[in-house]
Each structure stands twice: as C-alpha cells, then as structure tokens.
C-alpha cells in the first residue's frame, strides 16, 4: 500500500491500511498466546476472550459470537475443557441448559496473554510519531464498535497489576 496520506473517506485505502495493521496485530496475538500456552490456537483464544468479555453463555450464543457452527464450537469447547480452561455449568435460568464459562486457569491465560499483547502493542504505538497518534483512539474505538466488539472494561486489570 502507498504510505502517502489518503483521504479519510477513501474506503479502499482505509481497508488496505486496516488489513495491513491486522496482519501485525495477528502476529502480536499469536506470539502472546504462544508465550502463555503453545497448544492454544488463535481461534480457541478468541473463544476464551469471548467468554471472558461476555461471561457464561450457552453454546449456541457462543457459536453465534464466533460466527462458527455449533458443532465447531462444541469441538473447540471440548478441547479447551479437557485442558481445564473452560467449564460447563448448569444455567441459572434453566437446570436443563448448560452454560460455558472460563475456569480460573482460562481467565489467567486470557489475562496473561492480553497483558503480553498490550505490552507489545504499547511498544509499537510508542514508536509512532505523536502527531499520527492523534485521533487513533477515536478511530479504533469506532472501528471496534462498528464490528460489534465489546470495549475492554475500565475495571479490567491484567494479572500482576493493582486494581
């Protein structure tokens, strides 16, 4: 992609820029996950993050959030449960239904990988010229909102940091 300034209304140029940035973010994410647990895939980590951000959910809701078939979600849950990262529990509204949630170890994995990812992204952002960082927060928040991604809560703290 041409690194020359583009008009903020140039959807194709902005799409190319986001695609390029997403390659970097996927690489950062993969490194942070591998440093915590090499057996977890990006897709499985995404499931853990959804459970962390949304709390216990039914399998069908989880599959919808991940845009996968329930059978795919079931296989992912089975692997993560076997590794002690996900727990199945009775629903509070109906004893016949099961909901899925993070185990304490699953929460630790999400928080540790996120802490590592945050540190690496912080290094990258700090290397950007200050004038190019102006407006970046608003743009990224709007982008995440348009994609339906929940914002990291204000009270979220990575493991090992004071609340």
UniProtKB/TrEMBL annotation:
Domain of life: Bacteria
PROSITE patterns the record matches: HTH_MARR_1, HTH_MARR_2
Keywords noted in UniProt: DNA-binding, Transcription, Transcription regulation
Annotated GO MF terms: DNA binding; DNA-binding transcription factor activity
Keyword Heme: no
InterPro entries: HTH_MarR-typ, MarR/SlyA-like, Tscrpt_reg_MarR-type_CS, WH-like_DNA-bd_sf, WH_DNA-bd_sf
Pfam families cross-referenced by the UniProt entry: MarR
Residue stretches in coiled coil: none
Organism: Saccharothrix ecbatanensis
This protein's name: DNA-binding MarR family transcriptional regulator
A Gene Ontology biological process term: response to stress
Domain HTH marR-type residues, every copy: 11-145
């Amino acid at each position: 992609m041409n690194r020359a300034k583009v008009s903020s209304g140039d959807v194709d140029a902005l799409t190319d820029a986001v695609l390029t940035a997403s390659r970097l973010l996927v690489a950062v994410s993969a490194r942070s996950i591998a440093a915590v647990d090499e057996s977890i895939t990006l897709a499985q980590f995404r499931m853990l993050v959804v459970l962390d951000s949304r709390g216990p959910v039914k399998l069908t809701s989880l599959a919808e959030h991940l845009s996968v078939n329930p059978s795919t979600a079931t296989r992912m849950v089975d692997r993560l449960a076997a590794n002690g990262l996900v727990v199945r529990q009775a629903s509070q509204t109906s004893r016949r239904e099961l909901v899925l949630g993070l185990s304490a170890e699953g929460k630790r994995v999400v928080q540790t990988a996120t802490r590592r990812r945050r540190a690496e992204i912080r290094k990258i952002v700090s290397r950007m010229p200050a004038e190019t960082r102006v407006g970046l927060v608003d743009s990224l928040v709007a982008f995440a909102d348009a994609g339906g991604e929940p914002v990291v809560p204000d009270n979220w703290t990575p493991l090992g940091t004071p609340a």
